[in-house]
Write a structure and sequence with these properties.
The complex is a heterodimer of chains A (about 100) and B (about 500). Chain A is mainly alpha-helical and about 100 residues long. Chain A has three helices and two strands. Chain A has a domain of about 40 residues. By secondary structure, chain B is an alpha/beta fold. Chain B is globular and about 65 Å long. The chains are: A mainly alpha (about 100), B alpha/beta (about 500). Chains A and B meet through helix 1 and helix 2 of A and helix 10, helix 11, helix 12 and helix 13 of B.
Chain lengths: ~100, ~500
């Protein structure tokens, strides 16, 4: 499988990355180089193999559903590019 | 340079404990050496002099009372991926400009609890994506090692290049790194240092900037195997804040580094003999086999048939996880924001300007392999091959206690020589990436020099949870190699 420049434009849109117009051709070439290289995985017989999502052999832990942290509004906001009166300030998102 | 900076971690903590030297004196000298190296090596991204000196002072007070932890008074450098409260933590990305975490990572908390003194944040590839430290927003790190008769600038490896360079140049007594495909072991091999990652989940990822979560392993860089065992011991342990943290007690790694290897079965995997690999690496590998045989080990030929599929598998899983993890950088709550006409354009401009080329390439690849219509062909397939690779290890470890392989397919290369071709850069991790895919412990031990005088490493891989055997085999290689080379100071 390979990607076209239009595909790369679409993927960039999905990933919310500004269209890399000046590098579109180069990027398409690089991605196709990597895709060609990973094609070799088709040689592997994976019939009946269960996908492996983690190397951990323990079940995911659970804890009591209780508040363990909080009350640190100012710390949470300290790194915000923009904040006012205890809130994050973000671009308008609802018309 | 002040002579005591060349001591090992075990040596300096013994002197500190005996009150032959003060933690303040050590920290002051380390800070001066680190700051003076910046113009040439560029290993650090941030210092906090007053914090360093305050921590050293606190260590001196403890030591005066005969108290203190495993690292008491020793300056330790921290890869910029780990949150240190109030100190800029950017993963060397423009998108995290100015970010000062209001919390401390579990790994660094543990190091400070054992008396480690924070020296500074170290340079790295952006979001740990790279094998040469050339993708950092803060510029290249230069390897303290140079080829004989040459002044060419060499890579320290990556992604933890700054940590590796800082330890190799004797600017600190140990450093943290993270290893997702070889990001500790490859730079360790390139700088003549010891680099370790333990079993997946042994050291907590909490407070470390997430890259590819199922592959990320925190671990140390050190001058000796014993030092690496001390640091790994200090960093490890169950963390209730991290869901994949192993709910197990930590074995005594330091004792393991002094244990005999007599009777251990060492597997030599034939698939790690690569076409085009320099003869010196082949020779060093054979030398390692002979050393372990002489130390009383039994050598077994083993096969890991899916080895060649490990990197292509990794370059599906890694970008997939990275694209998901890096979705959080949206310019709203922290870091860089580049304003656009509307919300979507603000996201796009922020991420377009904030992420470097390699990071964008991985996010795009990850987005693609997870997108509708391609998920099964790429992502699901890779997860299945991942299990095949794990099964290879299970079968090999039925016949042996540890595997011995080269750490890297070459010595340190010149900066710029591989940056044009992503795949040739990715191939650096050909021997290291399998251990991340399987989540098993692995370390690189400096074992010799190539013809141009550059360090080469040997890798020891052991079954999950058996770091003890890894440390004892690593120590046996270290003893036999007697590697005492250190880069000649030019910086």
């Amino acid at each position: 499988m390979s990607v076209t420049e239009d595909d790369v434009r679409r993927i960039a849109r999905l990933a919310r990355i500004a269209e890399p117009s000046d590098r579109l051709a180069a990027l398409t070439g690089e991605l196709n180089g990597i895709l060609d290289w990973i094609e070799q995985l088709n040689e592997v017989d994976v019939e009946g193999v269960e996908p492996m999502t983690t190397p951990v052999k323990f079940p995911l832990p659970q804890r009591e559903d209780a508040v363990t942290d909080g009350g640190i509004r100012d710390k949470v906001l300290a790194n915000a590019p923009s904040s006012e009166e205890g809130f994050f300030v973000v671009p308008k998102s609802v018309e | 340079m002040t002579d005591f900076l060349t001591l090992s971690l075990a040596e300096i903590t013994a002197r500190l404990k005996a009150r032959e030297i003060s933690a303040t004196e050590v920290a002051t000298a380390a800070l001066a050496a680190a700051e003076a190296s910046q113009g040439e090596l560029n290993a650090f991204t941030a210092f906090d002099r007053s914090r360093t000196l305050a921590m050293a002072e606190a260590s001196d007070q403890k030591l005066a009372k005969g108290e203190g932890g495993l690292l008491e008074g020793a300056p330790i450098a921290v890869k910029d991926l780990f949150a240190v409260e109030g100190v800029p933590t950017t993963a060397c990305s423009h998108i995290l400009d100015g970010f000062k975490p209001p919390y401390e990572s579990t790994v660094t908390s543990k190091l400070w609890a054992e008396g480690g003194v924070f020296l500074g944040k170290t340079n790295m590839d952006e979001f740990a994506m790279g094998s040469s430290n050339e993708t950092s927003y803060y510029g290249n790190v230069i390897n303290p090692w140079r080829a004989k008769g040459s002044e060419a600038k060499l890579t320290p490896g990556g992604s933890s290049g700054g940590s590796a360079a800082a330890v190799a140049a004797h600017l600190c007594y140990g450093a943290t790194g993270t290893d997702t495909g070889g990001s500790i072991r490859q730079p360790a091999a390139f700088t003549g240092t010891v680099g370790v990652k333990a079993t997946y989940g042994r050291a907590s990822r909490w407070g470390a900037v997430a890259f590819a979560s199922s592959l990320d392993h925190p671990g140390p860089f050190a001058k000796t195997v014993k030092d690496a065992a001390i640091l790994m011991q200090a960093m490890s342990g169950h963390d209730p804040k991290e869901s994949t943290s192993l709910p197990l007690d930590v074995p005594d790694f330091v004792a393991a580094a002094a244990a005999s290897v007599k009777g251990k079965r060492i597997g030599v995997p034939k698939e790690y003999r690569m076409d085009g690999m320099p003869a010196e690496i082949e020779t060093l590998w054979q030398q390692g086999v002979d050393w372990l045989k002489a130390a009383g080990c039994e050598i077994v030929d083993v096969s890991l048939p899916h080895t060649k599929y490990a990197l292509p598998t990794y370059y599906i899983i890694n970008p997939a996880e990275a694209s998901s993890n890096l979705a959080r950088y949206d310019g709203m709550r922290y870091g860089l924001r580049v304003e656009g006409q509307d919300l979507t354009e603000t996201y796009e401009k922020t991420r377009g300007e904030g992420f470097g080329h390699e990071v964008q390439r991985r996010i795009l690849m990850g987005t693609y392999v997870l997108s509708a219509g391609y998920y099964d062909a790429y992502y699901l397939k890779a997860l299945k091959v991942r299990r095949r690779i794990l099964e290879d290890f299970d079968q090999a470890f039925a016949q042996c206690d540890a595997l011995l392989t080269p750490s890297t397919p070459s010595a340190a290369f010149e900066l710029g020589s591989k940056s044009a071709d992503p795949i040739s850069m990715y191939l650096n991790d050909i021997f290291t990436v399998t251990a991340n895919i399987a989540g098993v412990p692995a370390m690189s031990v400096p074992a010799g020099l190539d013809a141009s005088g550059l360090p080469l490493g040997l890798q020891v891989i052991t079954p999950a949870l058996d770091e003890a055997t890894m440390f004892s085999v690593g120590a046996a290689l270290e003893d036999a190699a007697g590697f005492s080379h250190t880069p000649e100071k030019w910086w």
